[in-house]
């Protein structure tokens, strides 16, 4: 039985939704050859600028690793102002509660004492960092940059005419993708400037300014001009383009671990004019590689002594070490309870209903309904380590069954949501493809964000996996101002 679909642009084959009317009228007047040439122009420019990402484990014919262009779609995803305002309120609420939770985990652990989250869910979590116990971070903010994945799906039991937004995942460690949001907008404005005079689209170009303001706000230094750097693992990292792009846009230095050193519990950057003190590190390096004296001793990506300087309060690290304890998929089901516990509020944005393998009753349900569920490894990411039951073969389902039985606490499961679709250019023409949205939430003196985020699109027909590593593409996201 086919599930009802919610189309972001079309209420029915003959009716366009009100917020898409101007765009749909414009699109209907565009000759096919013009749109085709614009697609080719966009691809050429993205290649020239170097907007690519590395795919780990993939190989070209000559055996070398592959760098791929993330496909860019010309048809934007449009969200009306009132829907965005509600989503923004929900994002502020959620990220505020998550930051309160991480602080609590590393301090008083009130949520554990209250019996809301089992202690072993935290202490046995691979992302829990005992080294952070009792460490006071600036303004008690741990996730300064949060990427919250949001999907839209038809209301359960409905006919597909109404849909709700759900949070699918919280990315609180080193969320990526914001550079594509910014470059997609620049590309649309370059290719179709007339669209931005006809439609009042909220701007996103000030994101680097907001990011720099957020990073400076948590500086421990008394100087009015704190020194901020972006720490990258290097040019072979899949998101290196983004690291370099954001450093350049903020006007700060892009550094690697070898460019930094610690002396007397302060962090310094090597420069041609001698050492310069660093106040804030926007790190794009995972916890394990940050300090070889504390974490992986063979890591060359971090800086020896960094944790000591951090614990002494002499440098801010964004996002904080140990933040990943809150974005684990096994913690996700508890976020609505966190919102109630820390803020005394009901969630504005709902979670997707989630079954936990660690719960005996949930486990029975998961094993009995594998063919209907999306099953995920709690530590999986990037679209890997998951089973999409309705699209899986009997052999794949059986293989996953054995994995879940062997380690039930390592898995969660969710109903297969019929993600909303948006018209998308594919080889056969314009066709509906499933999408999600990743807004980027900044937490400094206040919680703020630019209107919109990165819309990712699953380009394979019927696919629900939007990740770029799995063949997904991106679209510009328009938040209308009226």
UniProtKB/TrEMBL annotation:
It comes from Hydrogenophaga electricum. SUPFAM superfamilies: Glutathione synthetase ATP-binding domain-like. Residues 76-458 form the Circularly permuted ATP-grasp type domain. This is Circularly permuted ATP-grasp type 2 domain-containing protein.
């Amino acid at each position: 039985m086919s599930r009802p679909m919610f189309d972001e642009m079309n209420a029915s084959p003959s009716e366009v939704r009100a917020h898409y009317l101007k765009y749909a009228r414009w699109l209907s007047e565009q000759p096919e050859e013009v749109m085709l040439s614009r697609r080719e122009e966009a691809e050429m420019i993205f290649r020239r600028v170097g907007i690519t990402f590395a795919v780990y484990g993939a190989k070209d014919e000559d055996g070398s690793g592959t760098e791929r262009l993330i496909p860019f779609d010309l048809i934007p995803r449009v969200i009306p102002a009132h829907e965005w305002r509600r989503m923004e309120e929900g994002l502020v609420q959620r990220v505020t509660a998550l930051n309160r939770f991480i602080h609590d985990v590393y301090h008083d652990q009130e949520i554990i004492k209250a019996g809301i989250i089992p202690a072993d869910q935290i202490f046995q979590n691979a992302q829990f960092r005992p080294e952070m116990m009792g460490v006071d971070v600036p303004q008690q903010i741990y996730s300064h940059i949060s990427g919250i994945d949001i999907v839209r799906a038809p209301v359960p039991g409905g006919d597909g005419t109404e849909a709700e937004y759900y949070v699918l995942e919280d990315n609180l460690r080193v969320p990526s993708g914001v550079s594509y949001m910014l470059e997609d907008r620049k590309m649309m404005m370059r290719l179709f400037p007339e669209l931005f005079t006809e439609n009042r689209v909220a701007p996103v170009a000030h994101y680097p300014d907001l990011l720099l303001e957020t990073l400076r706000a948590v500086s421990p230094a008394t100087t009015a001009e704190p020194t901020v750097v972006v720490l990258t693992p290097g040019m072979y990292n899949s998101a290196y383009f983004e690291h370099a792009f954001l450093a350049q846009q903020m006007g700060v230095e892009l550094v690697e671990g070898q460019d930094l050193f610690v002396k007397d519990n302060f962090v310094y950057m090597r420069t041609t004019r001698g050492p310069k003190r660093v106040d804030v590190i926007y790190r794009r390096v995972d916890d394990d590689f940050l300090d070889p004296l504390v974490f992986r001793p063979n890591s060359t990506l971090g800086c020896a002594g960094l944790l000591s300087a951090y614990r002494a309060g002499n440098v801010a690290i964004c996002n904080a070490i140990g933040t990943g304890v809150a974005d684990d998929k096994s913690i996700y089901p508890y976020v609505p309870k966190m919102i109630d516990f820390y803020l005394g509020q009901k969630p504005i944005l709902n979670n997707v209903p989630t079954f936990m393998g660690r719960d005996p009753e949930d486990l029975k349900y998961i094993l009995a309904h594998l063919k209907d569920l999306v099953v995920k490894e709690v530590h999986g990411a990037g679209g890997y380590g998951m089973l999409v039951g309705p699209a899986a073969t009997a052999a794949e389902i059986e293989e996953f069954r054995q994995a879940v039985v062997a380690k039930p606490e390592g898995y969660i499961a969710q109903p297969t949501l019929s993600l909303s679709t948006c018209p998308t250019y594919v080889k056969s023409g314009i066709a509906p493809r499933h999408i999600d949205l990743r807004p980027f939430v900044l937490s400094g003196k206040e919680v703020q964000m630019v209107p919109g985020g990165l819309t990712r699109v699953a380009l394979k027909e019927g696919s629900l996996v939007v990740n770029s590593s799995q063949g997904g593409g991106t679209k510009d996201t328009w938040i209308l101002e009226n």
